[in-house]
């Protein structure tokens, strides 16, 4: 299994509070991604990173920010959580940004009350 | 918007039977990938087929790609109870790589022992 750890795995928070999800990898892969998974929508890309301090927006980036200060860590921050951000968040990594399989973490289930 | 859409949304078959699921997409692609997701887990890569390939095999999996129809099918032969999972196709738009990898909504496959 690819060395990807997401934390926390489960979190319940209240509307308006900040939340940070962490993705940690031990594979030294260059590319890291944050997806959210919702019923009826499949997986949708939030943000991705193609190197340390190099990030870009995905399809559903509004309300989210990311940071990558080290190769192994990719943080997803919800500055002020809303109920619409209740979802399961997946981190994925890959060595290649042009072709190849993604390796996924086990997911972080976030509930915003 | 979803690039790929799987069909059917749900499929139940008897163990030992073959399972076929389909994926349709909208724009030209470089590659198409299939992933499996067990309940409560992250996605696992199954197979990748390039746009210049028409068919690919991996164990009990057979994937076809018809770029003229913008569709792909995943066939699982001699199904087993362990194949019970959701299956997703993922495509990368031509001229983009994994940063534009978009997932369909998935087919939920149930194998009845």
Descriptive account of the structure:
- With 113 residues, chain A is mainly beta.
- Chain A has a single domain (4-112), classed as Immunoglobulin-like, CATH 2.60.40.
- Chain A is built from no helices and 11 strands.
- In chain A, the strands form 2 sheets. In chain A, strands 2, 4, 5, 6, 9, 10 and 11 form a 7-stranded mixed β-sheet that branches. A 4-stranded antiparallel β-sheet of chain A has the order 1-3-8-7, with no helix packed on it.
- In chain A, a hairpin with a 2-residue loop joins strand 5 and strand 6 (54-57).
- The mean pLDDT of chain A is 94.
- Chain B has 113 residues and is mainly β.
- Chain B has one domain (4-112): Immunoglobulins (Immunoglobulin-like), CATH 2.60.40.10.
- Helices cover 0% and strands 59% of the residues of chain B.
- Chain B contains no helices and 11 strands.
- Chain B has strands at 4-7, 10-14, 19-25, 29-37, 43-50, 55-58, 61-66, 71-76, 85-93, 101-103, 107-112.
- In chain B, strands 2, 4, 5, 9, 10 and 11 form a 6-stranded mixed β-sheet that branches.
- The relative contact order of chain B is 0.34.
- Classes of the chains: A mainly beta (113), B mainly beta (113).
- At the A-B interface, strand 4, strand 5, strand 9 and strand 10 of A face strand 4, strand 5, strand 9 and strand 10 of B.
CATH architecture classification name of chain B = Sandwich
Summing up helix and strand content along with how strands pair, one would put the structural category of chain B as: mainly beta
Low-confidence stretches of chain B: none
The CATH superfamily label of chain A reads: Immunoglobulins
Average pLDDT metric of chain B: 91
> What is the CATH topology assignment of chain B?
Immunoglobulin-like
Number of strands of chain A: 11
Biggest sheet features of chain B: 6 strands, mixed
Largest interface: A-B, 30 and 26 residues
Biggest pleated sheet of chain A: 7 strands, mixed
Radius of gyration of chain B: 13 Å
Strand content of chain B: over 45%
The level 1 CATH classification of chain A is Mainly Beta
What is the N-to-C succession of helices and strands of chain A? EEEEEEEEEEE
The count of β-strands of chain B is 11
Q: Estimate the strand proportion of chain A.
A: over 45%
Query: Rg of chain A to the nearest angstrom?
Result: 13 Å
Measured as a percent range, the helix fraction of chain B is under 10%
Amount of helix of chain A? under 10%
